[in-house]
Amino acid sequence: MVLNIGKSCIENIFSLITVLKFKYQIKLTHWKL
Question: Domain total for the chain?
Answer without folding.
Answer: 1
